[in-house]
Amino acid sequence: MLRQRIHRAAVTVLFAAAILDAQVAVRWDARRPLAPYRQLTAARTAAVDTLRLLGLMVEFDFEDVDDGRTAGTGRFDTSTTHPAVIDPPPHNAAFFEAKMSFVRNYFARASDSLLFIDGDVLPSPVTVSKRMADYSQDNAPSFRGLARLAVESWMEADTAFPAVDFSAYDAFVLFHAGTGKDIDLVGLFGYDPAPYDVPSVYLGLEALRTALDSAAFDGIRVRNGTVLIRNTMILPETESRVYATSGTNDTLEISFNGLFAASIGSHLGLPDLFDTQTGASGIGQHGLMDGASFFAFRGLFPPEPSAWEKIALGWVEPIMVTSPIDTIILPAVGSTKKDSIYKVPISNTEYFLVENRARDLLPKGQLLTIMRKNVLYPLYIPYDSLNYFMYDDVRAVDGSVVDVVDLDWALVGFITNEGRFDGGGTLIWHIDEDVIAARMASNSVNAGSGVHGVVLMEADGSQDISRNYSSFEGGSGSEVGTPFDPWFLGNDSPVYANRFDDTSFPNSRTNAGAASLVTIRDFSARGPRMTAVVEFGSTRASSLSGFPKYIAGVPGPAIPFDIDGDGWSEIFTTRTRKSGPDGRTGSPTGSGEVLGWTSSGTGVLPLSDSSGVVARIDSAVIGRLSAGRIPGSSLSVFAACGTAQLTVWNGQDLNLDSLLDVRFSVSLSPDTAAWLVLLSDTLVIAYGPPGVSVFGLSGTLLANFPSGATHIVWTGTQHQFYSALGSSLRTLGENLPGDPFVLGSPAIEMGGTIMGLAAARTGSGSPSIVALSTGIAGASRVTVVDGGAGTVSATFDLGQYLKTGEEVLATLMLADRDRDGKKDVVVSTSMGRIVAASLSGVLLDRSPDVVSHAGGWTSVDLLAAELDGSGKTTVVTAGADGIVRFNTSGADVGFQASNRVAMSAAFASVPSGVTSSLGLFVTDVAGGMNAWDLRTPYDSTKVLWAMRGGDASGSGLSMIATSSAAPLGSGVLPKDRVYNWPNPVYGKQTLIRLYSEWDGEVVITIYDVAGDRVTELRGRSLAGQDVEIPWDVSGIQSGVYMARVALNTVGGSGVAIIKIAVVK
After folding, report:
1. What is the dihedral sign for C-alpha 907, 908, 910, 912?
2. What are the structural domain ranges in the chain?
3. pTM for the whole thing?
4. What is the pLDDT of residues 559-568, one digit of tens each?
5. Which of 744, 787, 922, 1035 could staple 731 via S-S, CB 3.0–4.6 A?
């Protein structure tokens, strides 16, 4: 017979659902007998593990009249005369034992001897009751027919082999007569000559339950029900088939060695990494769980499992790269007793894996061991050779391959007799664990056209893997990879620059499209030992060594504080543990904890470790940490509350127990949530709905009020505060120094529930107390109170500037957004926008600013600082997409902080050599804490709002005067500051805005185009501020109108003319 050479891209798996749900055997929620990633079997206790396989040969009811819809007669080919082909008959127990030998050798090499496969094949076949087509045609979508085949086969084996101890085996294999339905025959022949051949599949317990429509099914019962078989691999006698061409019969030769290995991979818990919706390749010939790999070299042997697969199986512990810049050494996979795989983090759940793969390690050529007529023969392949051994042309093989020395010879490449090495190099994998976890149950990790869980970053610049090119397109043949996909010095791809970064092809950006701050560059020439340089950072930011941290539980806000007075911040937070497996769900349990690290990720106390625990409280729930320094002393103090407990610590560990020393601890009235705490010079104020308690630093109770508080802010005057509960705002403190604490009465009513409270003060001026309460669009109503007089100075609702359905979130920041020297109210919205207004209620220019956060925001912290010496205020946000964005003058740039919803953010002073740099810390809902150097010199006068609550004490007070502030204009009535918005006017109102250096009287006269007076508006200017005077146009016809704006002040008078278009 002729051997037909098929182009490698033409051999396509039909595994849209074929190796069914590897996670059906091992699910992420640990409801399976095999746990993902950390152990291969439920009983695994050592690094080396054994997997026991039992093979059963299965024949079908004999087709005395050949069924043309299937290949063969339903019986095994046991003939002894055969041509020189792959996997020749007789297909008896010895033949299938040779297949067991192949997978034993494959996994021993791939796992570096961590997995030993011990397998037996029962000596004779069993025969099931129906013909092949009866089991194969009743499958979609649940594989019901194959499940019936599995049940009937093992029941027959139970009867036929009474001496077999089924309980001694972990996994079970059916080798059925006939050819597997695993190749795209339509693509090869234009039609399917055997549509009812049996597809190869791995059926775990859940797959069997689904197929048999029985949630109570607990396994195939053998030995009178005392043993349960809970999984079955179904594999064919052969993947080869005879077909007619030009009047003669040819043979399409394909082995199922690779498919057998992948089926075991499914049993071990690996998901399919091809597109299970289309069958298209997902990782090419670079791992195990892809059709391109397990049918590489005509199915004779797949390459080594990919970096992610080896880590998932627990065979390799990746080497975490954390240094800002590091040269990594990459011995080729298989060249040492333990593979070296580097993990380059983006966030807690998204990262790059880096490995070196070589087709020919020494180089020495390939050595295969082949069984032919029960005798083992070596086959040496010095190089790739057309018409002998190359790609899909493997005519050199005559028999069954049972061992391969270089598994990665199956990588895409070509080695010539001149020694040219083509194939292999450094592989970079982009891993997204969130995608993997979300798609494991549906076996769609790499399915569809969107984001995939395991992606090879193809160095040739064209992401061809997973594409489906026609034979006439330029990419045809590259769908499973090319020799230019690895990274190495000398890669001939036209776009290759020997670096992988934010602008390379492909680039190192995250799956959300943000900068990852990762650069991998200076790859060496490919070979058994390679090197590359990994660097974290950009012109905007660089990662801090020692981060990210993982906080197993529910973290509190990030609180930077300089505990030791060296000028650099340490970072603190709290942790509440819950009863769920991730520590973040379920009921609170154990003790609330305070965690702290230096900016390099080490413990903050001399004896503390990298776990970061520095304090505990007698409460399962812990609230926000507050930190401060005792006036006139270098000693710092910390305070936190539980649901019924306040604890204050000194910032030292004199008893050397690796924990902060307790200063005092007192009981509070029980509440369902943790109380809050504010440190202010010599006071500790604990507050919550049950009450407000004021203590001195010695623990003396100074005042106790049964009327509680949800917010308290400091005014900047000693022992003077404002307290909020419900819709009421009250003063709290001493009327005169030394007087008893009193809660002011009557209350100032806000008109809605107070959701946020902050204070602003410049110099010795009167403080402004700003309350954010429920209004027309969430927490949109703003009330400004003169803190000295206790009177309302302004009330306005930001909801009037929002879109339908958009709401203001309960996140309030006071900072000079427009650099005019005055504090502004800054909030975020549910649609990912920043809204800023002056304390008089005038919306700032260009507000609201759009910040591109996919999925919007939760109530996350807003920060503000002057960065890069720009003289402009930058607002820093972190959104539901986990991206940190820097918004300056309406434009935003950013990078990925986390793959999860951000919880809190904070600025800090971090070391940069011997000087200080502005640092940024972000926590997320999954307990991750990441940290960066923003590459801006730290200057406390340029940090306008540093963290939740404004500062480490939680005072809610902004006292930083804006540096390099400039008035919005000069003169009586600067014409460039006179305009109306919106313009044109489509709604019922427009606002006429003007600015002046002085207070004065404003008269605005509106004329139509005929010069007739329409109306007159009056108002007042406020010195150094924008003011707005509304014009109600609900009764005005469409047209162009002229507005004469006249202003009279003590500094003079001025007039400006503007045009207003009204469109109805």
Report:
1. positive
2. 49-268, 282-363+402-536, 543-960, 975-1062
3. 0.81
4. 999 999 999 9
5. 744
